[in-house]
Amino acid sequence: MITNNISNAQLSGIEQNAPQVGPQKVEAYLATIEKAQKDLEKIDPAIASVDEQSADSEVLAMVAAHQKQVVQSMVGSNPEDAIALTLAAGIEACSARLEAIQQQAMGLGVFVDSMEAMWEDISKTSPLTGYALEDAFQLVLMDVLIHIDDYNLTADEKDALQRFMECGGSGMHGSHENYDQNEFVADLPGLFNKIHAQAPKDSFAYTITDSMKNNSGCPGALVTQFQNNWGTASEWYSNWTNGIGDVSPIMRMALLSSVLTDSSVEISSDEYNMFLTGSLSDIDTFMNEKYGKNTIEYINEDLAMWNYYFDPSENPVIGFGMNFHSSSGMQVDYFTALSENLPSRPLTDEELKEVNRIGDQARMLQETLKYWLQICRDELVAIARNI
């Protein structure tokens, strides 16, 4: 919480701390004050917008930066003025907290938080069965990609990882470049066991693989899932078009990033959480409301780097099912950009309360700055008249 860095005693002492300057500097210092007053007036509209609605962290960051510039210009003219330094400290505290709130609401940190939220939801059921096994393992692979230097994967294992990211998990089954369920069955046990053995004990990947191993019988259960529940291309297409089933973690994050990037669409905190843990039907409802199309249509038409092939004959050469625009599965560079550049999520209720408190502080600082500059100006005008 931002506290008020300007005490009542300091405010009441502004008049006593008014500038004490020699006659030769009056004109220059007066010009500095008048410029500062004009600069301060420039952000009055932004302050007014904060008064009219809930505070916006980006607007407040701009206000704080502008206020800081005003104070810094005054400190340079009269470094003995303790009030300027006190005001600067208050503005600095606002700026630091706003930056912290903005940083924790975007980028890799939020991406990791989202992965943890998905695992928390998946792990509510134990042992894991069906597609939940695939989704859990996809979260493992996402953590491996974030901390790839912790693992010594071979080229073949990296290829299997990329293939799983493209065609493993809820709603993702498909075959491309002759890689299908049989290859998954062959490759997954070794990849699972190697990750479990090499993952740092305090890592997200280890937490999940250890749980899957001890509570769900993996990697055997994961292999059985691919052997028995691969499904057909027609079943895959029917599930997507009718909103049946769930969505894999990587597709949830790809969709979420795309929607957050769209400035024409507002997304609430509840809707953000729905993208992480809701069903395909839930996401379809949102997509139909915002875009007039269901999720698979959005993926095929609007989601960067993704589309699908529907081939009822399941020709492995042509390919079918979910498709990433690459001949070797979902690319690591794509995942890195997706995870590190996730747009800002909606602020939580607590964060919004904090931003509103900072808004109150910004308004108080604005009025204090105006009062202080006026006191300084009046003092200098009086000095000028006596010269």
Report what the structure shows.
The structure is a single chain. This protein has 18 helices and three strands. With 387 residues, the protein is mainly alpha-helical. The longest helix is centred in the C-terminal third of the chain and has 38 residues, at 349-386. The model is unreliable at 1-20 (pLDDT under 50).
Whole-number radius of gyration? 29 Å
Fraction of residues in helices? 55-70%
Give the total of beta strands.
3
**Spans of 5+ residues with little confidence (pLDDT < 50)?**
1-20
Major beta sheet summary: 3 strands, antiparallel
Q: Give the overall silhouette.
A: elongated
Count helical runs.
18
Strand order of the largest sheet: 1-3-2
Overall pLDDT metric: 83
Draw up the topology in text.
Blueprint: H1 8-12, H2 23-41, H3 44-52, H4 57-77, H5 82-103, H6 107-122, H7 131-146, H8 155-167, E1 174-175, H9 181-198, H10 204-216, H11 220-228, H12 233-241, H13 249-261, H14 269-277, H15 280-291, H16 295-301, E2 306-309, E3 320-324, H17 332-340, H18 349-386
Helix pairs in contact: 2-4, 2-18, 3-18, 4-5, 4-18, 5-18, 6-7, 7-10, 8-9, 9-10, 9-11
